[in-house]
## 1
Amino acid sequence: MDCSCSTFVIGICFRCGISADKSRTAISLCAKVFIWTVFCVVVVTLVSAYIISHLQMYLPSLHSATRSNVRDMILEIQVRNTTVLTPRPDACEACFSHNFKYVIDNNVMCKLYNDSQEIDLIIFIFTTHQHQQERNAIRQTWLNCTNKNKANIRYSFLLGEVPDENIRKLVEEENKIHNDIIKEDFVDTYQNLTYKTMMAFKYAITKCPHAKFVFKTDDDVWVNIPGLLKVIQREKMTLQTAVGGACFHGANPHRNLDSKWYASFQSYPHDSYPGFCSGTGYVTSNNVVNKIFEISKNVPFFHLEDVYVAICIRKLGYRLHKIAGFNNIRPSFDPCLYKGDNLITSHEVPPEMLISYWNTTCTR
Ligand SMILES: *[C@@H]1O[C@H](CO)[C@@H](O)[C@H](O)[C@H]1NC(C)=O
Ligand SMILES: *[C@@H]1O[C@H](CO)[C@@H](O)[C@H](O)[C@H]1NC(C)=O
Ligand SMILES: *[C@@H]1O[C@H](CO)[C@@H](O)[C@H](O)[C@H]1NC(C)=O
Ligand SMILES: *[C@@H]1O[C@H](CO)[C@@H](O)[C@H](O)[C@H]1NC(C)=O
Ligand SMILES: *[C@@H]1O[C@H](CO)[C@@H](O)[C@H](O)[C@H]1NC(C)=O
């Protein structure tokens, strides 16, 4: 066996298959084989080292991966992706127009029944089509003081649109009886509550400009109207440039997908909110409502309505004013507390509970 090139390959005999008289060609050929072999080995080693080192980075998390770990990883990838592409701008030129049409336009809500009548307060209650029981419980209890929308306090239940024809019909019937529903043609979902707020504000400034104060709440809230009226009387000057309620400063976006208040980096690319006054109940003046509605045209949509209101308030240079007695939780029931001056709102009160609270009198 002719193996004249073996000296070049550190003891490994390559079968070059060439005779001794062609040894010079053989030497250069074997050298090429040798160099290519070394090159290939080096490349393969480097590539595998790279792959292994990266696998080790991911392996521990993959081993212990729970469902939420994997979801967080996917979310992080999505978040990085979208942040780079289209984060929500802080301001814009006429990008948020409220172009929805009324489906139920309740023109009697703010009607004045004589020359000397004034509207001190309008109450907007966020609800959904199916919550007829909630609405009835509220009508029977804390809305009694409105005297079916003829007193100086007025109210309305707010809805968006739903696909189901039968559910729509039920609400139309309900409105024929009570005349207290306002509805526009945006899709009624949790993600669209900011549209509902803008619907309320638009209604207040276009159809109720003579109303002095505006209160926004939900259909699972106990509201102490006499207490609220005292707060308004006390805070009437402050509320010309502030929103009052269960206000929080220094709130941060929830980045966990499971959170009810989840906000993606794309929808809000900052670490903190300008605060917010809980949507379970906030009060302000018609003046502030007017200013918010105007500035909202240049403030990009954000789905958490109370945060959106706070963003507008900051842009206006106004304030979020924390007022004692506004609770975004449900304090334990005591009729003297619930009907006294120290509690204005209580949250997560289902219809039967609302009625039983209403029927319990304070005996101290
Ligand atoms: C990144 O963004 C593009 C365009 O919005 C989208 O098609 C793609 O699915 C995104 N990738 C990930 C991993 O989210
Ligand atoms: C005006 O109407 C309201 C509500 O019906 C009533 O309470 C009030 O007494 C009326 N005022 C006058 C001067 O008639
Ligand atoms: C509770 O109050 C409602 C009206 O708010 C009334 O119709 C009902 O009879 C009361 N029920 C009881 C048990 O007192
Ligand atoms: C409901 O309001 C009417 C007048 O609008 C009043 O006469 C009645 O006492 C009120 N009922 C309760 C339980 O407050
Ligand atoms: C919000 O409402 C708009 C307008 O009706 C609709 O196009 C959109 O799908 C709704 N968004 C959600 C998340 O329901």
## 2
Amino acid sequence: MKTPFVSLEQAKKIIEQYPTPFHLYDEKGIRENARQVNRAFAWNKGFKEYFAVKATPTPGIMQILKEEGCGMDCSSFTELKLSEAVGFWGEEIMFSSNMTPAEDFVLANELGAIINFDDFTHIAYFEKLAKIPETVCCRYNPGGVFQVANDIMDNPGDAKYGMTKEQMKEGFRILKEKGAKHFGIHSFLASSTNSNTYYPMLAKILFELAVELKKELDIHIAFINLSGGVGVPYRPEESPCDIMAIGEGVREVYEEIFVPEGMDDVAIFTEMGRFMLAPYGSLLATVVHEKHIYKEYVGLDACAANLMRPAMYGAYHQITVLGKEDAPCDHIYDVAGGLCENNDKFAIDRKLPKIEIGDIVYIHDTGAHGHSMGYNYNGKLRSAEILLKENGEAALMRRAETPEDYFATFDFTGLFKK
Ligand SMILES: *Cc1c(COP(=O)(O)O)cnc(C)c1O
């Protein structure tokens, strides 16, 4: 079973200052994990993890990752602005967007970010806005299904992202003609993988493509971007990925494919979001109701507006009732939020200790794609984000929304005109 990174006593102290619900992040865990990622790929001179900003677009978190040597992977105007505000610039920013608006490309170019073209037609679209940069990247989609052993991991042929091999070739040829000098290849073939072989298998596909493109077009391949997709064990019975083994697996493919071709200067980039943050965030909520009808319910002060993954994907998040870590899980509950949507349940038929009103519930692994997916349905407000610092202090990184925030985008002027 997973253990929370705070005790009931610690949580209560934080709650005295900041009422539930809130997302709490573990600085120590974030830093240690980021260091381990950098160690796993230390064999590669140019290695850089570009944190997928969408997972946790919180300056306090982005700053920690900056200090650990990470760049930022953005896909929208606002994510670019956020990265700029935290002090990222130039090739510390990867711009991996799709269906990209013109103003986003313009800003990415102004910041000197590495542009990752999702589609062949984006090259001509970009050229109308700005000069083609010297370093560029294209996103590859091999089509078909992506299998590891006999398991289908994902279905790239069904995904809206990336270009076919022919389009990659034609794209690189045109980019070279327009002055590009250093080329990157990016691909994202499977999400939330719990296997040490995903990155090495993806690396093999991209390295082979890189060799082919280099030979055919006589271009300099500068980097391979393995993107995101490395998973975390949300369920207690799942085992975590071994990032050291993953790094070693990629190194072996690198030795096998790149080194004999003299391509030993190619940098490896990653764009992990989930693996960098998910386990180091949690949603803390208070039990405000219990309800006994055809099933047993406990109602929280948090809802799917604070954590959408269970409602959206049926995702599993482990729940610990703080202070009852060692109590027997001899009750079965649906743990629900207050949205007028029956899918607003953090857990269904979950075995938990006997729960009382006032208990503090700790929902695990919400550090990535948690707060950031929040929304305002039913007029629900997004929660605060708090950092549990290495020295044990709690720091507010983002305050909770207020009704004023919800009202801020309305224009009431017409209502008062007579
Ligand atoms: C979402 C996303 C990521 C991060 O994915 P994780 O599964 O969180 O690692 C990386 N790159 C791109 C382009 C993405 O859209």
